[in-house]
Amino acid sequence: MTGGPSMRRVRAEILSTRRLGAYHSLTLVAPEIAERARPGQFVAIAMPEGREFVLRRHFSIHQASRRGGWAGTLEFAIEPGGPGTAWLTTARAHEFLDVIGPLGKAFAYPKHLTNCLLVAEGHGAASLYFLAQELRARHKRVDMIVGAEDLERVFKPIEAKRLSQAIAIVTADGSAGERGTVLEALPDMVERCGTEVIYAAAPARTLERVAAFCRERHIPAQVSVEETFGCGVGLCFSCVVPVARKDGSGYDHLRACVDGPVMNPARILWDRWLSEAPRMIPTPPEGLPVVRSWPG
Over the chain, what is the mean pLDDT? Predict the structure, then answer.
């Protein structure tokens, strides 16, 4: 099993559960994982024994507390959609879960640039709130765009307002904030906030358009890609994403679970990843674009 020396498997007690609109939140007592967790990483939760559930379910870490009264706890959010997530929504305080984490590659923090815009759509917001706290602790300016289909799916809007200096909340049906999408709110927020760095967590089609926007504006960015994880530790290769090499000489199929889920969107070959065409396409003779390094 891969995953690095920081990964731990623990039997974690559920401290509390609560409903958050369309989502459910679980807080666990897991100091071995919480003290190592970084924004963008995730945990793998074991399912009940039996043939109905074969694989663990994977969830972004929403909060990890290392200090204060909640020290040693971590929180993740669930959007019920299948038998595994449905089973987790029935879990109650003082029950125990088999948890592996922290897994995956975390967000990086810019050393010199200050103004950070966090773009979240749907349940992708969970990991960005953890990131917002860490950026603020490093004296960065945090602004946010939080979008969803409707009010029920806007993730913790009050928490988002607390964490950000400027915020835009948008919903497709107009039931919360402004009617629209995060992409429609993006240009105005960048201009208004003097954005220097963009972080995003959203479905792949939204991330593709955020990547195009950042490329046009020459804004460095990092995104958390959404892929279906099988093993979550790099063994099954079910979550590969075609990513150009830094020098443009070619590309590799990187595993989102261990080489991500945080990636540089300028290096993702979106047309190959999201199209129905075969992914194994030769590198053109002129090579692929050379991407400058992250400003950190």
Answer: 90
Cβ 262 vs Cβ 104: under 8 Å: yes
Task: Tell me, letter by letter, the H, E, C secondary structure of 232-274.
Answer: CCCCCCCCEEEEECCCCCCEEEEECCCCCEEECCCCECHHHHH
Per-residue model confidence (pLDDT) at position 1: 40
Question: CA angle 111-113-117, nearest 5°?
Answer: 115
- State residue 2's pLDDT score: 43
Q: Do 155 and 126 form a contact (C-beta atoms < 8 A)?
A: yes
Please state the rounded mean pLDDT for residues 222-233. Answer: 86
The whole-angstrom separation of Cα 58 and Cα 145 is 24
Higher pLDDT, 46 or 233: 46
Q: State if pTM tops 0.70.
A: yes
The more confident residue out of 40 and 292 is 40
Query: Of 260, 186, 179, nearest to 227 (Cα)?
Result: 260
One DSSP character per residue, 57-113 reads: EEEEEEEEE-SGGGTTEEEEEE---SHHHHHHHT--TT-EEEEEEEESBPPPPPSS-
**Are 274 and 209 within 8 A, CB to CB?**
no
**Mean pLDDT of the 18-39 span:** 95
3-state helix vs strand vs coil in the chain, percent to 5? 25, 30, 45
Q: What is the DSSP string of 205-230?
A: HHHHHHHHHHHHHT--EEEE-----S
